[in-house]
Specification:
This protein is of the alpha/beta class. The chain has 18 helices and 18 strands. The chain has an eight-stranded parallel beta barrel. Helix 7 crosses helix 8 and helix 17 packs antiparallel against helix 18. The longest helix has 33 residues. The radius of gyration is 26 Å and the shape is globular. The two termini are 43 Å apart. It binds alpha-D-glucopyranuronic acid.
């Protein structure tokens, strides 16, 4: 993936610094600790980049502190001669770092100083990334970095039978036949990939906790869980587990899972105690409760706060936290019932509970009110509970965005979400400020996402889908980075620095989300996918279903009326100014029009086109864009190794065929419904 380094250091400007790469001075840390990981990564990275193995030595025995890389932890390393002042360094939070070059004529050196072991490791990976992407110029480096969000997590949706829910890259790297692959080198490689982009937490089993997975918190599996935790710990990543709310029942130990029953409370305390005896720095429990038929507190007439707090009390003595998901809605809806709106559910369930959750509970809220569609508005719940910790959940796995058969670089989508102005505390209350804990005084907050990896050789099914995993980490470290800069960085590290390669792949990534949207889901409508699988078109697949996912297309128009005036009233969940923008046809942005309004096909968009003509045009254009992307990819033949070239070519051809199917199914469906012809007379069936 992006850590292959081989020969990627250019000679440009290098001469001056070349000597520094011969030795690394560092006071060694604990065996298996993050500091040693960092130094190991630094040494092997430099060796791969330059072809020379640096000598690693500790400061005391070092004769020449010049002409070296001095790496260490602020407070524990001598700073003299390194152009870093203690006062400056102490401003940094725990995970921050400084990279600075010291140019004393022909006696140059490089300092990498972390505020903590983790900070140092992030500094090392950043340093190596800079060498890979830009090389080291005449002026060297002067970098000070710190992460925007405290929790930067991933959720594996891996099952112990080895399958991965919504996984498009092979089988699980964590499990096979109901056993943990606790010693698998793949897990260590994964930890490296994640640490290199700043991920610091991982939940290693599916949120849908089935029978066997319920036992992950018992003696049966804890020794193996502890081994996996060791692997991640060495890379500064904390381990979390998804738990089954009905655990005491499922394991046949109690006849209830009622959170207010003292026996249930004692049971969870016992479990927590045992987990911590194996994994002393265990992160906590991730919980999907009363959601899509999973058990939860509702069975006992209790609410989400009762359920989450019970688990929180069990974890509190050890510093653990509960990540309680807000993906709660009625999945047994009657499609004839026009008053129930799934989009409203999370807010309606949770908002009234503000202030009732323990301090070590975090509500995990999906980025949109529905379910990771290609386009949705931002969830109005995010930030709407000032007294309850929040984290936002994204989806790196491409469930609804082409399933790693289509290219769909999601960083631009996530960036739009993070930049969204909720206006909850006046103009400029952006999602990224809320997630950073800058608006409400959250004790815990941050971001998480569903991972997209499996045991395929290339990790992600499609080579280019690696960019989403990389991009997630980079954007969540610094949400102010430009999506294009991230795409380019990834391309350079993964495919090398050839100008045509970088330009073509970066360009493809950057327009891929818009392209995917154009041939699939116009104007925010969503859900016109094959039920259950969520790949390929099926316009009415979910239209008469129990899942609450409708487009309401008839012969006159399409869209879901979510206004307060005539619809479900969903718009009222937003702050007043945003609510007005969405409520009003004149101000509602085109790309979300059909999410908020039911309009005639001849309704004129801000773009000047009618809705029906927009549907036709975007679907024809979307396919043309895929054709153009494929053509420019093919022009790279000979500049990319054959294996990856063939692989990506194969996927791109499949994407094109599937895009044509989308185009023809969607256009034909709406032509037949509306009876309105395409202005340009193109082929519609
Ligand atoms: C989606 C997805 C499910 C998943 C669920 C969740 O509905 O299709 O596979 O379990 O989200 O987030 O819990």
């Amino acid at each position: 993936a992006w850590l292959h380094y081989e020969g990627q250091l250019s000679n440009k400007g290098l001469a001056k610094w070349a000597d520094c790469f011969r030795s690394i001075i560092c006071i060694p840390g604990e065996r298996g600790g993050v500091l040693n990981t960092a130094i190991g990564e630094l040494a092997s990275g430099i060796e791969a980049l330059t072809g020379n193995k640096p000598e690693v030595t500790d400061a005391a025995s070092a004769v020449d502190r010049k002409r070296c890389i001095a790496a260490g932890i602020i407070g524990a390393m001598p700073l003299d001669g390194l152009a870093i002042s203690l006062a400056e360094a102490e401003q940094l939070p725990d995970e921050g770092f400084i990279i600075r070059t010291i140019d004393n004529g022909d006696l140059c050196s490089i300092a990498i100083a972390g505020r903590s072991e983790r900070g140092l490791m992030y500094g090392v990976f950043h340093f190596l990334r800079l060498l890979q992407t830009e090389g080291i110029g005449e002026n060297g480096f002067n970098v000070v970095e710190q992460p925007a969000f405290r929790l930067r997590m991933l959720n594996q949706w891996d099952n112990m039978d080895g399958s991965v829910e919504r996984g498009y890259a092979g089988r699980s790297i964590f499990y096979r036949n109901y056993e943990l692959l606790a010693r698998s080198p793949r897990i260590k490689d994964y930890a490296r990939l994640l640490a290199s982009v700043g991920i610091n937490g991982i939940a290693i089993n599916n949120v849908n906790v089935h029978r066997q997975e319920t036992k992950l918190i018992t003696e049966r599996y804890l020794p193996d869980v502890a081994r996996v935790a060791d692997t991640f710990r060495a890379y500064g990543i904390r381990l979390y587990l998804s738990v089954n709310f009905a655990g005491p029942l499922e394991l046949g130990e109690l006849d209830t899972a009622d959170p207010l029953d003292p026996r249930v409370q004692a049971w969870w305390k016992e479990r927590a105690n045992e987990v911590y005896s194996y994994v002393p720095d265990f992160g906590g429990f991730l919980v999907k409760a009363d959601s899509e038929n999973r058990p939860g507190p509702f069975t006992y007439g209790r609410d989400h706060a009762d359920g989450a707090n019970m688990l929180a009390d069990a974890l509190a003595p050890y510093g653990g936290i509960v990540l309680w998901r807000c993906f709660v809605y009625n999945c047994q809806q009657d499609w004839r019932d026009r008053s129930t709106d799934r989009a409203k559910a999370a807010y309606d369930h949770f908002r009234p509970l503000d202030g009732r959750f323990r301090d070590n509970v975090i509500l995990q809220i999906k980025n949109g009110p529905m379910d990771f569609q290609v386009r949705e508005p931002v969830s109005p719940l995010f930030g709407a509970m000032p007294n309850t910790n929040h984290m936002m959940e994204f989806q790196v796995t491409q469930e609804y965005t082409g399933q790693q058969r289509h290219v769909c670089f999601l960083v631009p989508q996530w960036k739009e979400v993070l930049d969204f102005d909720t206006r909850l505390k006046g103009e400029g209350t952006r999602v990224k400020d809320l997630a950073a804990g800058k608006v409400h005084p959250y004790t815990h907050c941050g971001v998480t996402a569903v991972s997209n990896i499996g045991d395929d050789d290339n990790w992600t099914g499609h080579h280019l889908a690696q960019s989403n995993l990389y991009g997630y980490g980079r954007l969540m470290w610094n949400p102010d980075l430009e999506a294009e800069a991230i795409a380019e960085e990834w391309t350079r590290q993964t495919f090398g620095g050839d100008a045509a390669v970088v330009e073509t792949i970066t360009g493809w990534l950057m327009e891929s989300w818009g392209t995917y949207e154009s041939y699939t889901a116009p104007l925010g409508v969503g859900w016109m996918v094959t039920p259950h699988y969520h790949y390929g078109p099926d316009v009415d697949g979910y239209e008469y279903s129990k899942w609450g996912t409708y487009h309401f297309a008839d012969w006159k128009g399409i869209g879901v009326d979510r206004t307060q005036a005539t619809g479900t009233g969903y718009t009222a969940q937003y702050e007043a100014e945003n609510a007005r923008v969405y409520e009003n046809l004149a101000t509602c942005p085109d790309e979300l029009l059909l999410f908020f309004h039911h309009v005639p096909y001849i309704h004129k968009l801000h773009s000047g086109k009618t809705v029906i003509q927009h549907i036709y045009d975007t679907h024809f254009e979307g396919v043309q864009r895929v054709e153009a992307q494929l053509a420019s990819w093919l022009s790279l033949e000979g500049k990319i190794d054959e294996e990856r070239f063939r692989h990506v070519t194969g996927r791109a051809k499949e994407q094109l065929e599937n895009a044509k199917l989308w185009r023809d199914v969607i256009n034909t469906y709406f032509y037949r419904k509306s009876g309105i012809s395409d202005e340009q007379g193109r082929t519609i069936y």
